[in-house]
Specification:
By secondary structure, this protein is α/β, with parallel strands linked by helices. The chain has one domain: TIM Barrel. Helix content is 44%, strand content 16%. The chain contains eight helices and eight strands, in the order βαβαβαβαβαββαβαα. The chain has an eight-stranded parallel beta sheet. The chain is globular. Bound molecules: zinc ion. The site of zinc ion has 6 residues, from loops.
Length: 251
């Protein structure tokens, strides 16, 4: 199994060991806003920790940890153009597999520009990009994101739209991007993920979005068991838990 979206820097080493024991082989840890992120330097230190420390903690626990680096819409400094200018320097690192997480959260114009600039980096450097949709105003944010994707004209296979749920799945019916299903106490349950998977034939990717608040380190194995017990074909389970994230992140 591959857990395609986490924030390991705020989780314990023991969580990593437990995830390894239940068969999670690879984890992507995404840049986020663990502090106030008030200056570009805070972000640079955060990116550095993900690349050096989280990959090391992963290998000590027996998990291959890779990194997505980007600027999160929930926390970024006024001087964010400095981050965009420096981001490409990090993309050559063998542990960096994507840009993210980025996306829209408060839906203001500055945030839209920040997303566009990261999409242009993804296009220019041929990197996959992880796009967050918020818990509040999710449909409205997704409509804006879809407009922006069209405007920048990015290839669909470079994009994962994350935190899709039963209320937003209809909006992505006609596009062939990867779709993130986040099994998490504040997002969707294993049962909601199962229903979406049963009713829609899309390129789904599962993740736990482990963070500092309540999350579920067993999100993937629980959903895998539920899919098995509900007669989802083995091939389809493998696509969602392994093949799709492997393809998207080129692991
Ligand atoms: Zn996240």
């Amino acid at each position: 199994m591959i857990d395609a979206h986490t924030h390991l820097d705020v989780r314990s080493f023991e969580d990593l060991e437990k995830m390894a024991l239940c068969g999670i082989e690879k984890i992507i840890t995404c840049a986020h806003d663990p502090y106030k992120m008030s200056t570009p330097e805070v972000y640079f230190d955060h990116w550095d920790r993900l690349i050096k420390m989280e990959t090391k903690r992963g290998s000590l626990a027996g998990i291959d940890v890779k990194v997505a680096l980007g600027v999160h819409p929930m926390g970024y400094p006024k001087e964010w153009p400095t981050l965009i200018k420096n981001l490409p320097k990090y993309l050559d690192n063998e542990n960096v597999v994507a840009i993210g997480e980025t996306g829209l959260h408060h839906l203001n114009e500055d945030e839209k520009d920040l997303l566009k600039e990261q999409l242009y980096v993804a296009i220019d450097y041929n990197m996959p990009i992880v796009i967050h949709t918020p818990e509040k105003n999710k449909r409205e944010a997704l409509v804006e994101i879809l407009k922006i994707l069209k405007e920048v004209n990015i290839r669909e296979d470079l994009v994962m739209i994350d935190h899709i749920n039963k209320d937003t799945i209809d909006l992505v019916r006609d596009i062939d991007v990867y779709l993130g299903l986040t099994v998490h106490p504040m997002k969707i349950s294993p049962m909601e993920a199962l229903k979406i998977i049963k009713n829609h034939n899309k390129k789904f990717i599962l993740s736990s979005d482990l963070g500092s608040l309540k999350s579920d380190i067993y999100a993937l194995p629980k959903t895998k068991l539920l899919m098995k017990n509900n007669n989802i074909k083995d091939d389809k389970i493998r696509d969602i838990l392994y093949k799709n994230p492997k393809e998207f992140y080129r692991l």
